[in-house]
Amino acid sequence: MTSRSAHIQFTTAIERVPTIPGMSHWPMDGSASQHEVLGTLNDAMANAIVCLLRYRSHHFLARSARSYAAAWDFLDHSNNQQGHADLIAEQIVLLGGQPDFTPDKLLQQCRAEHTNDPTVTDMLSENLIAAHLLVDDYRQFIVFLRDAYPTTRRMLESILEVEQAHVVELAQLLQVESACAWPLRRGHESH
């Protein structure tokens, strides 16, 4: 896959995927109810957990393909997502809510496409799309909150910074991998 076709595929996927469910009708004047904030925090936490699982899976697949730069980047991003999920869960509890770790909630948050038998380039593209979606979601949520929940907003801003760095890292790795276009070579370990 060339970097141009990866960009076209990425742009097309971004256009097809909705933002945080229900957020489009919220008032953007900072008048969010606690119920709306807790629901959206649970959505954000579920997104972080889904990304954690995808990154972790891709870490092991990329290692088996001997694409160690991508593998370690995926592992680092997976660990970041675990930290984000923990921060968000803690904030939910501080606001008087209960974090929703049910599998049904996680399945509802699967918005990025999943590729069967992916190449390293496929994995990078999939994660780049997901990272862009997270950046957009966090930006919208921060705008939605305005000054109503300053601690929650600051936490989301710190997560947003990390997600923006993920986008840059993934885009750079995708550019390098697209130039090489190595297929996934499972089971070819040296003894």
From TrEMBL:
Q: Which GO terms describe its cellular component?
A: cytosol
On whether Disulfide bond is a keyword of this UniProt record, the answer is no
* A Pfam match: Ferritin
**Which keywords does UniProt give here?**
Iron, Iron storage
Q: Which SUPFAM superfamilies does the protein's record reference?
A: Ferritin-like
- Keyword Translocase assigned: no
Q: What is this protein called?
A: Bacterioferretin, Dps family protein
